[in-house]
Amino acid sequence: MSFVFDPAPVVGLPVVGTDARFPVRRVYCVGRNYAAHAREMGFDPDREPPFFFCKPGDDASIVPVAAGSTATLPYPPQTANYHYEAELVVAIGQGGRDIPVEQAAQHIFGYAPGLDMTRRDLQIAAREKGRPWEVGKAFDFSAPVGPLRPLAQGGEYNAGAIVLEVDGQVRQKSDVSHLIWSVNEVIANLSTLFALQPGDLIFTGTPEGVGAVQRGQTMTLRLDGFAPLVVRVA
Questions:
Q1: pTM over 0.90
Q2: How confident is the model over 198-207, as pLDDT tens digits?
Q3: Which residues contact 105 (CB under 8 A, 6 or more apart)?
């Protein structure tokens, strides 16, 4: 098959313990999945069904970050309120639709730390007008992700401290066990809306403490059991 121009390369995330890369297909994100974060955004944290939004799965949006390295993100255009959101990312290794909660872990390839970078002012403006969130969430370089730890190496990940520092100052601090909807529940619910496929990533939500980051600042995401994810804003 020939194309009128070369297709974009597949984004590959590093995988702990191997030189092989995990090819990214789609990126799903869960909104307001920690109660304290829901409150700080002005919403009721009652356990209503989770809602989802997407980021591009291409090399413009996904930023693979190797262990021990520092990635550099350009400050995005058209915003004056550029926010960090620290998250546990789940990688799907086996596809499926209408997956039962008790079988969800069978579909997980592994886990990684990730940042859902957000143009908060643009997101809020879109939300207030009842418009989609893409301009606030799906921009270039909006999804740095660290190396994936395969489930086969460490088992299921349902608890662990998640801490985000900016220039050494703690801004977010919680535990994955505080998710309103657990990882397996998120997978089960999402699979009723989309047929999940190998290569899909799921950002599972961020805890309280989101805030703005400025040019020249460095974010460090510490997730128990993983190498720190370090990202600097150019």
A1: yes
A2: 999 999 999 9
A3: 151, 156, 184
Instruction: Return all residues near 12 (Cβ < 8 A) that are at least 6 apart.
Output: 21, 22, 23, 24, 64
User: For residue 19, what are the contacts with CB-CB under 8 A and spacing of at least 6?
Assistant: none
Give the model's confidence band at 45: pLDDT under 50 very low, under 70 low, under 90 confident, else very high. Answer: low
**Distance, CA of 81 to CA of 67 (rounded, Å):** 28
| Tokens, residue 180 | 């309103």
Q: Beta partners for 31?
A: 51
Token pair, residue 38, equals 């829901």
